[in-house]
Structure formats: structure tokens, C-alpha cells
Amino acid sequence: MEIIRSGRVHYLAPQLDTAAAATAVMGFSTRHEGVSRPPYNSLNLGTNTDDSPHNVEGNRSILARTFGLTQDRLVTVRQNHGNDILVIDAPNDDLAHFLEIEADAIITNQPGIMIGVTVADCVPVLLLDPVKRVIGAVHAGWQGTAAQIALQAVQGMVRLFDSRPADIRAAIGPCIGPCCYEVDQPVREGFAANDVSPWDAVAESRAPGKWQLDMALANRMQLEAAGVAGTSIKTASQCVCCHKELYFSYRRDAGETGRQMGFITLKEA
């Protein structure tokens, strides 16, 4: 992945093949080029922060306009660390009501809207099927990862839109890395209860009852288990906690921080 500047927005973009690039635009925002003041400086896209709502609206407008859309065409949901998925499968002139829906993933076949998830340590996952023209955005914290939300989002694309996993491209954005993400026994038990990726494959024990969890890898394993080819999954290599100059991090900043966004929009056919 590489950082691209488009208009006022700096974002991390996965390298897409010709079919994918012709179908959608996707990326992961950095914290730069917005209007928010410290500690939310500057492109804070999270509505669930103590930043001024006017600043957040301005930042969301900057993001949408960068890609030729108005702010009302940017769709996010009320994320609650679960595994519910919002499906948008028909044209909709009023998208504002989706902002109050509790979910942690969005999948749609509708062009002309931007779907996104906001994160500040959690894993943003973007999905694209250029054959059936379907896109998805997934928010996976440890609870969502334990509940296999990335796998379920792929299965939703298959079940509802006839996607083939082999056609799906995925991008896993910047998140907290195992270098900075120490977890305890309840997290391990949450993974075990849902029979997700083998714990020893995604977590390293460094002290009794403590593990360094690799959430990006855990989500990658779920995508592969859902049938997405490993060669079709792009993963960012940056830990948001380590890179304060580029990203917000909830853990690093003790909760007083902004949110970046994983976003994707389907181009008109």
C-alpha cells in the first residue's frame, strides 16, 4: 500500500488490479488535512468523540468531496463491537437514518455512495467484488474479530449478492499491531468461545496471562477461511500506535483521540 494525496486528503491506498480499480475507489485515511484541533488534529472522522460535531462534519465533507460526493452520500453506522451487518441493496435518497443503525459492517451493491468504518486501533477491512459489483466495509475490534465479522461479511456478499469468494479482493488497513496490543485472559476466552483462528497463530505469550495479539493476521485468516485468495488480500504493515504522526490510537492516547476511516465507494457502471 502507498499513501496518496487526492485533493486535501492523504490516504493509504491498496494497489488494485485493473478490474478492481475500474470498479471502486478504496482507502484508509490518515489524520492529516482536516479542521479539528488537538488532540483530534486534524482529519478526525469519528462522531463518537468529544471533538466539535461541526469539525467532524467538516472533515467528513472534505473526504466525500475529494471523491466527487456530497457528505450526505457518506454512510457510516453506530459501531458497537458486534457482528451485525447493514445491507444496502436498493437506491436510497435519504441515507441519514443509517447513521443510527447499530452494526459493525456495511455491504452494498449501490454506486454513488461511500461506505466507511471509523477506527483508532481496531481493524478496518474493505471488500470488493468487481464481478458482481459489491463492496463492503468492516470494523473489527477484538470482540468483532472473535465474532468472525470479516468472515460473516464475505458470507453475506455470497449469500445476498451471489459473489464468489474467489472474486473478492480485500484490504486490511492500519490497526494496532502485536507490538503494542497486550491482551489478557478474557480476550483469549472470547476467541476460544467462537472457535476462531488458532490462538497460538495470532497471539504470542510474553508473560503469564498476557498475550500480544495480531488482529490483522486474525482477520486475514478469517478472510482466507471464507475463501478469499491470499494473493487477493492486501495488508497494511503500519501499527497505528507506533505512528502518531500518521494515525490516531485509542490505546496510545488514553482514549482522547480522533478516528481515521476505512472507506470504499462503488463507481458508476
From TrEMBL:
CDD domains noted in UniProt: YfiH
Catalytic activity: adenosine + H2O + H(+) = inosine + NH4(+); adenosine + phosphate = alpha-D-ribose 1-phosphate + adenine; inosine + phosphate = alpha-D-ribose 1-phosphate + hypoxanthine; S-methyl-5'-thioadenosine + phosphate = 5-(methylsulfanyl)-alpha-D-ribose 1-phosphate + adenine
Gene3D superfamilies on file: CNF1/YfiH-like putative cysteine hydrolases
InterPro entries in UniProt: Cu_polyphenol_OxRdtase, Cu_polyphenol_OxRdtase_sf, Cytotoxic_necrot_fac-like_cat
Domain of life: Bacteria
Cited Pfam families: Cu-oxidase_4
Keyword tRNA-binding attached: no
Record keywords, A-Z: Hydrolase, Metal-binding, Transferase, Zinc
Family per similarity comment: Belongs to the purine nucleoside phosphorylase YfiH/LACC1 family.
NCBIfam families: peptidoglycan editing factor PgeF
The name this protein goes by in its record: Purine nucleoside phosphorylase
